[in-house]
Amino acid sequence: MVESLLLAQVLLIDTILVGWLQDPAALGAVALGGTFFFILQGIFMAIGVGSMALTSRAWGAGNRREANAVTAHAIGVSFVAGIVLSILCYWLVLPYLRLMGAEDQVVASGTTYLRILLYTAPVSLTMLVTFSNLRATGDTMTPLKINAVYNVLNIVLDVILIFGLGPIPALGLAGAAWATAIAGLIAGLMAFHKSTWRKNSTQNSSKGNCHLAKKPSPADAKDCGANLAGSYYSTGRIHSFHVHGYQPGYHGIGGTCDSA
């Protein structure tokens, strides 16, 4: 809930600060541009929901390799889709604004605003898919923290680039667009870095094909993702070896648990 509010707040901050320019055309451009960008975000949120279902299923089953593979594929597909859509939308911005009935001045301002946002859209939109996959692994705090950084960066850069600071000239509406684009780029790279770190930290973990040598211990059973019960040994052979949810095979004095 809080994360969704933070995400929506990015363009809201643009609207508030651009409103201080007292330029109706610029304010209209941000409003129509925000609607256009929310449509794009909805597409990537849908991709994130699908990948989150697959990732969470693999992660919950203890199959870290499959979860990492799904995450990598989802991020890769999203990034390529982001590039294609950004190029396509670069040329669709103008007809979209005209279709919405905007006046010529609003069309000109809105085109500038949206096209600047589209420069870093492949990264900022892919970030939404990365967030979904992080949440699928039980990590809900990282997306929240990155969204908070996104908002803080956007506010700071908005103030600097819209109104100017020292040697930095006031860019007005274009400054708001560049502030949001840069903040989205940084936040997207942070999310990608976190996802890559998670993948590297779990790349050697997977379920199945887990062999127990000699006498299995509770630690071994935990590594296999199963509970051992009712086991005792006689003359070097396993008399009873029960693994909940598995059909183990017996090999001499050792056991093998393979995923069903």
Task: Provide an overview of this structure.
It is a single chain. The protein is mainly alpha-helical and 260 residues long. It has eight helices and five strands, in the order αααααααβαββββ. It is globular and about 55 Å long. α4 packs parallel to α7 and α6 runs antiparallel to α7.
Q: Please, what is the average pLDDT?
A: 80
Strand portion: 5-15%
Sheet having the most strands: 3 strands, antiparallel
Tell me, briefly, the overall form: globular
Helix count? 8
Distance between the termini: 37 Å
Based on CA atoms alone, the radius of gyration comes out at 26 Å
Strand order of the largest sheet: 1-5-4
- Low-confidence spans: 204-260
How many strand units? 5
Helix percent band: over 70%
Please trace the helix and strand order, writing H or E for each element: HHHHHHHEHEEEE
- The chain-level structural class is mainly alpha
Write down the domain tally. 2
